[in-house]
Structures are given as structure tokens and as C-alpha cells.
């Protein structure tokens, strides 16, 4: 059990701000704080901020209880997080990680405001899974300092961070964001141009497409397809199990975005997934998706 505080001298005195304290933002802020960065977590929702603060304290307590984190490191990290209700705190940030609701207009407004508030050197990244940063970089007035920094859920656990440059992103920005991800204890990968789904969601989409096609053609049951992915390919979850875990609404939304962008019929949203979403069977979170879950698993 050791402290994860980073030792990169180039990142000394860096203050991180995370915009949006939902599923991703809270855990990204805690990741930064555990790495030793003073961190501001901002959300327009006061309830959202309170819930994030509560969740992070509970997470830290759990880790300490399991002896995965020293109590002093947990309380030091929690103490590095400052909670803010508006964006004005961005005037003190060196890097802003935007993890707000996945809507283009919201992100455009945030980047425009950040462009006005932040000092000129501040790097602005988006955690968006489906929106390439080129769609919002112009609003900031500093497109060379903008890229995607895509974390995975749960951000405190998952090692991968996809750093996606757009045509205007400078090499200096790319290097700074890669270094920051490493300082967070992550294993970043660099994606040289914006492609829908980046790497991970693209790979996952291909497996899911094949799994859905095999099941629909009656070649094998969902259970046997999932079992094959686990026992032959070493995947921790089969594709149907994984879709249920991610949420079928999220899977459907990603497919819609990808198809809108590529127009490729291979990317067309799947009818079976769409039907389940229509029925409110969104996966584990609603207690049913491709599979049924015990009530406790739904909460
Ligand atoms: P979420 O709905 O859990 O949280 C979004 C938060 O943004 C909410 O708390 C909301 O109040 C806040 N918000 C909305 N407008 C805001 C504004 N103008 N200023 C500040 N805060 C604002 O969403 P999430 O799942 O955490 O997703 C956030 C981002 O992360 C999205 O871009 C998504 O694509 C990306 N992402 C999500 C996942 C995932 O599995 N959930 C994984 C990787 C990336």
C-alpha cells in the first residue's frame, strides 16, 4: 500500500479543474487528487456536487477499510478537492477536464466560457466519448490547447486514457496531456486523428455487432456467445453481459452518434437493442436487459 502522488517535476504547481461532477467527473477529480494535484470539482447542480462529495468520501472509506489506501493518503486526497458551483474558479486552473452532460450545445457553452475565464496557458480537454474536440475547440479561442482526454468508467479503476488530438492540437498540448495522464497513474494511448468511437469503443462495437448478428441468425445462444468470449478470448465479460453493464441506452446512443457521423450501414443502431431500450430494459441498472438481474443488482 503506497501513496500514488506523482513525481513529475514538470507538473509541479499544476491545478486541475473538472467540470461536471457526475458518474465520470467525481472519479476523475479523485484520481487527480490522489495523484497529488489540487483539484476543483465544478457542477451547475448543487445536489450533484453534494452527491459527488459523499460518494468520494464513501469510496475512500471503503478503500481504507480494504487496506488498499492509507487513511492519511485518503484524507489528504479528499482535502485537495475544492467544490465549486460556477466556472469562475477556472481562473485558477492550469488544466480543465470537461466531463459535463453529453450534449454539444452544453460543451460549446462551457468551452466558450472557459476560453474567457482561464489564463492563456490553460489546457482544456473534454472527456466526451462521442464528440471529437474539434467540434468545440473553436469556441475556446485557443484550439491548439484543446483535445479529448477520454477516461473509462469507473475512472478510479480503469487504466486506459485515450488522448485524441484534432487537426489544431499542438504537439506541446498532446505531450502535456499524456504526461498528466501518466501522473494520474494511467496508461494513456495517443490517437492521431478523430475517428468515431476512438479505439476502445470501436473495438467493443465490432465484437458487439458480431455477437448480435450470431445470436440473431440463431447460430448460438447469447449465453454461449458470452461464455465463448470469456473462456476462449479471455474477456472478463461476454458482449451481452458487457452491454447490459454499460447500459443499453448508452450503447444505442453511441451507435446513433457513430452512424450519424459515418453513414456506414455496418454502424447502424441494432434493432434488438433499440427494442429493449423502448421497453425500458436498459440492462443491470433497471434490473433487466438482455438478461434478468436480481433486484439487488439493479440498485
Ligand atoms: P452524468 O450525467 O453522470 O454527469 C454529467 C454532469 O454534468 C451532471 O452532474 C450535470 O449536472 C453536469 N452538468 C451539466 N451541464 C453542466 C454545465 N453547464 N456546467 C457544469 N456541469 C454541468 O454524465 P457522465 O456519464 O459522467 O458523462 C460525462 C461525460 O463523460 C460525457 O461527455 C460522456 O460522454 C463522458 N464519458 C462517460 C462515460 C460513462 O461511462 N458514463 C465513460 C467515458 C466518458
UniProtKB/TrEMBL annotation:
Transmembrane segments: none annotated. InterPro entries: 3-OHacyl-CoA_DH, 3-OHacyl-CoA_DH_NAD-bd, 3HC_DH_C, 6-PGluconate_DH-like_C_sf, 6PGD_dom2, NAD(P)-bd_dom_sf. Keywords: Oxidoreductase. Pathway: Lipid metabolism; butanoate metabolism. Residues 197-293 form the 3-hydroxyacyl-CoA dehydrogenase C-terminal domain. It comes from the Bacteria. Pfam families: 3HCDH, 3HCDH_N. SUPFAM superfamilies: 6-phosphogluconate dehydrogenase C-terminal domain-like, NAD(P)-binding Rossmann-fold domains. Residues 16-192 form the 3-hydroxyacyl-CoA dehydrogenase NAD binding domain. The keyword Iron does not apply. Belongs to the 3-hydroxyacyl-CoA dehydrogenase family. This is 3-hydroxybutyryl-CoA dehydrogenase.
Amino acid at each position: 500500500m503506497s501513496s500514488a502522488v506523482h513525481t513529475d517535476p514538470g507538473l509541479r504547481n499544476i491545478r486541475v479543474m473538472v467540470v461536471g461532477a457526475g458518474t465520470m467527473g467525481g472519479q476523475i477529480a479523485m484520481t487527480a487528487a490522489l495523484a497529488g494535484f489540487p483539484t476543483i470539482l465544478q457542477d451547475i447542480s448543487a445536489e450533484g456536487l453534494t452527491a459527488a462529495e459523499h460518494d468520494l468520501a464513501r469510496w475512500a472509506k471503503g478503500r481504507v477499510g480494504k487496506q488498499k489506501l492509507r487513511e492519511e493518503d485518503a484524507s489528504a486526497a479528499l482535502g485537495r478537492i475544492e467544490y465549486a458551483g460556477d466556472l469562475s474558479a477556472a481562473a485558477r486552473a492550469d488544466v480543465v477536464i470537461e466531463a459535463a452532460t453529453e450534449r454539444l450545445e452544453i460543451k460549446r457553452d462551457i468551452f466558450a466560457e472557459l476560453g474567457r475565464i482561464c489564463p492563456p496557458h490553460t489546457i482544456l480537454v473534454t472527456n466526451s466519448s462521442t464528440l471529437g474536440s474539434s467540434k468545440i475547440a473553436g469556441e475556446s479561442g485557443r484550439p491548439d490547447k484543446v483535445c479529448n482526454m477520454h477516461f473509462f468508467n469507473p475512472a478510479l479503476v480503469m487504466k486506459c486514457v485515450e488522448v485524441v488530438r484534432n487537426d489544431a492540437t499542438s504537439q506541446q498540448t498532446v505531450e502535456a496531456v499524456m504526461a498528466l495522464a501518466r501522473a494520474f497513474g494511467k496508461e494513456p494511448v495517443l490517437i492521431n486523428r478523430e475517428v468515431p468511437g476512438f479505439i476502445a469503443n470501436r473495438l467493443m462495437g465490432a465484437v458487439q455487432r458480431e455477437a448480435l448478428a450470431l445470436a440473431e441468425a440463431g447460430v448460438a445462444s447469447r449465453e454461449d456467445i458470452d461464455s465463448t468470449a470469456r473462456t476462449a478470448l479471455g474477456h472478463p465479460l461476454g458482449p451481452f453481459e458487457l452491454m447490459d453493464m454499460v447500459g443499453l441506452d448508452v450503447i444505442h446512443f453511441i451507435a446513433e452518434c457513430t452512424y450519424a457521423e459515418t453513414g456506414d450501414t455496418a454502424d447502424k443502431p441494432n434493432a434488438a437493442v433499440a427494442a429493449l431500450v423502448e421497453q425500458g430494459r436498459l440492462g443491470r441498472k433497471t434490473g433487466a436487459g438482455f438478461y434478468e438481474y436480481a433486484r439487488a443488482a439493479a440498485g
